[in-house]
Amino acid sequence: MTMTQTDLIELATRQNGGVEVRLLWNPAADELKVAVVDESTGETFEIPVPGESALDAFYHPFVYAPS
Predict the structure, then answer these.
(1) Cβ distance 32 to 63 under 8 Å?
(2) What is the pLDDT of residue 2?
């Protein structure tokens, strides 16, 4: 199931050095994802994450980023 922006609840957000990271939850599907925007490079990506890895992915998103 694909999440839309209207389905999402923001659980946490942080910004540092031009990088914004958001932890988002879709309660209808019980799915989590981390969304990242790097303003210095223009890179953006979203990572679906299991609940047990959500905080780790939130604090270290580039480890979980697609290659």
Answers:
(1) no
(2) 55
Q: Taking the model in full, what pTM does it have?
A: 0.84
* DSSP characters over 2-58: ---GGG-EEEEEEEETTEEEEEEEETTTTEEEEEEEETTTTEEEEEEE-GGGHHHHH
Structure tokens at 52: 């047990």
CA dihedral 39, 47, 7, 14 (to 10 degrees): -40
Tens digits of residue pLDDT in 4-13? 556 899 999 9
Q: Determine the straight-line distance between the first and last CA of the chain, rounded to whole angstroms.
A: 23
Contact 3, 26 (CB under 8 A): yes
Structure tokens at 46: 């979203």
Over residues 23-32, the pLDDT tens digits come to 999 999 999 9
